[in-house]
Design goal:
The chain is mainly alpha-helical. It has a domain of about 60 residues. The protein contains eight helices and two strands, in the order αββααααααα. The protein has a two-stranded antiparallel ribbon with strand order 1-2. β1 and β2 form a beta hairpin. The chain is extended, with a radius of gyration of 37 Å.
Length: about 220
């Protein structure tokens, strides 16, 4: 059938009393109306002024289900320092809970398997590891520390950490891990090395100053 015959065959059908007749081509689609009907424009009503409130409420519900405060979920802090810190501390409770689950169910199991193999092949010397379960438990003790929480006001939080250590509420090692994830003993070792280097530098400076001030 040629295109002209096909168009003549479709012409009576397009002129029928149907409300809407579709005529589809390869690239687009057109809707043809009857003679007594007309097309009316539809107002989309976008952007909707209630969109921001809807998304905010929906995001709060998502954060509640995930145990994540709204400010942290969208990473946008607009409240006061106390409110932002309260949201961060509340979220950190959930982080510690999930971190303890992950450490006990995944990390600890892998560490114990690795330690058992290392002791069995003689890489690590651990007397009584296989003969006494209590000794094995003691050897297998480990603490897994993830990323640090972060500081909103470093000066105030460092002062609070120093007071906790001074009054015996915490230790320097624990505060170093929670503040920036570092090892306190390694920090002390590195500081000792840096102080020795600085003393050498100061000695060189004093010697240079003495040479410059000496009379010719």
């Amino acid at each position: 059938m040629t295109m002209r015959r096909r168009a003549r065959w479709a012409l009576p059908f397009l002129r029928s009393n149907r409300a809407i007749t579709s005529c589809t081509t390869l690239k687009s689609a057109a809707a043809l109306l009857s003679v007594w009907r007309k097309a009316n424009l539809v107002t989309p009503g976008r952007p909707n002024p209630n969109y921001d409130g809807f998304v905010t409420a929906f995001t709060r519900h998502i954060g509640t289900a995930l145990e994540i405060p709204y400010e942290i979920l969208i990473k946008h802090f607009t409240s006061s320092f106390s409110a932002s810190r309260g949201a961060l501390l509340e979220f950190w409770k959930s982080v510690r809970m999930f971190r303890s689950w992950f450490a006990s169910d995944f990390c600890q199991a892998i560490y114990e398997e690795w330690l058992c193999e290392a002791v069995a092949i003689g890489r690590i010397s651990a007397p009584g590891f296989f003969s006494d379960p209590a000794i094995r438990k003691a050897y297998s003790g480990a603490q897994f520390n993830g990323p640090a929480q972060g500081l909103l006001k470093p000066i105030e939080e460092v002062k609070a950490a120093a007071l906790r250590v001074k009054n015996g509420f915490s230790t320097r090692d624990k505060e170093a891990q929670e503040m920036n994830g570092s090892d306190y003993y390694k920090n002390v070792h590195d500081l000792k090395h840096e102080e020795a280097l600085m003393q050498e530098v100061e000695e060189v400076k004093r010697q240079a100053a003495a040479d410059n001030t000496a009379p010719d």
